[in-house]
Recover the amino acids of this structure.
């Protein structure tokens, strides 16, 4: 008769003891804590890398925007604004009417040094930062290629090419061009015009641009993120408009220096943070003359992360060029958790400089 297998003894079916379970749980928790700590550190490191990349991108983008705009400053197609008389005083930054826009034609660049009285149109302006104005026309003709049509709105500019008594041969230099808030009065002609009265093909129409760059305390109301913004000249058809456009977050400070060509040879021979007071200027006529002589701009930007870094304190000071008195413009330590970086460049102004070459 076959022998049946014996049943396992009870002591062989025994599980883990309470002590063994507690030890295993403790080891598992320790491993889980280590993995969690490593994950958090890696996540924070990745966030810091992304913030650093974003800061560099924003700083370079801001520099590139300013550089491109400045290189086109004073471009009015075939019109040479050097024939225009200087205004009695510096024109208002945010012109309220067509006459104010025309007064600014002679100044391709203009600015306000930090601490100066600022116009009300610069809402939420960060204290102690500079303001830059760039005036020019679009480099493309309205309605041609990718350039917006005149129906997109003005102001508009025309440079006359017509050599007759009512335009380029007129004793009044205001007849050499047309600047209008709408398409009305855009009556300058091309080279095929007839002598008298003027007729023929109308001259090309370009959008007239004025950009006012400044640092705002916030990107969106109350978010506390300093941002490079600009006011962009527009028109209702009867009056100028100045909508604000955010450009680059985290730009905390803007300081500017201008190269002035006092010798009128197209080369800067004096650098000043405030041309209105440079070289002993004490009156409005001198201030306007200095601004007309600007042929270069040196840009200093201070960019910061948009989020604070836990455990970090910024104890550094930063130098952003020179003040109007010739002393270094130092930004004292903020002693906060934001990392910062300085961006600098110098931009030559080929249009104003080229017209002054001997």
């Amino acid at each position: 008769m076959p022998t049946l297998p014996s049943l396992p003894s009870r002591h062989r079916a025994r599980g883990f003891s309470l002590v063994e379970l507690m030890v295993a749980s403790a080891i598992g928790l320790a491993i889980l804590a280590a993995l969690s700590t490593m994950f958090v550190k890696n996540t924070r490191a990745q966030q810091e890398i992304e913030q650093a990349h974003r800061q560099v991108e924003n700083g370079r983008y801001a520099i590139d925007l300013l550089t491109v705009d400045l290189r086109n400053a004073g471009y009015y197609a075939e019109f040479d604004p050097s024939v225009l008389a200087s205004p009695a005083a510096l024109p208002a930054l945010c012109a309220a009417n067509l006459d104010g826009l025309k007064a600014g034609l002679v100044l391709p660049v203009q600015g306000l040094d930090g601490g100066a009285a600022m116009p009300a149109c610069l809402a939420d302006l960060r204290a102690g930062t500079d303001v830059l104005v760039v005036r020019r026309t679009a480099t493309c003709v309205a309605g041609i290629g990718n350039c917006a049509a005149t129906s997109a709105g003005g102001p508009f500019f025309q440079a006359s090419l017509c050599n007759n008594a009512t335009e380029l041969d007129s004793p009044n230099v205001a007849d050499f061009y047309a600047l209008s808030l709408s398409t009305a009065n855009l009556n300058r002609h091309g080279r095929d015009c007839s002598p008298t009265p003027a007729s023929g093909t109308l001259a090309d129409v370009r959008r007239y641009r004025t950009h006012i760059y400044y640092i705002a305390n916030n990107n969106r109301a109350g978010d506390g993120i300093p941002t490079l913004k600009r006011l962009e000249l527009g028109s209702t058809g009867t009056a100028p408009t100045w909508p604000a456009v955010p450009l680059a977050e985290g730009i905390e400070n803007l300081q500017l220096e201008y190269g002035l060509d006092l010798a009128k040879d197209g080369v800067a021979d004096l650098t000043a943070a405030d041309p209105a007071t440079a070289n002993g200027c004490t009156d409005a006529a001198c201030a306007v003359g200095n601004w007309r002589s600007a042929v270069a701009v040196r840009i200093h930007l201070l960019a910061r992360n948009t989020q604070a870094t836990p455990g970090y304190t910024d104890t550094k000071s930063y130098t952003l060029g020179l003040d109007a008195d010739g002393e270094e413009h130092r930004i004292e330590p903020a002693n906060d958790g934001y990392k910062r970086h300085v961006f600098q460049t110098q931009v030559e102004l080929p249009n104003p400089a080229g017209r002054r070459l001997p």
Observations:
- The chain has two domains: 78-248, 250-358.
- The radius of gyration is 32 Å.
- The CA atoms of residues 164 and 195 lie 5 Å apart.
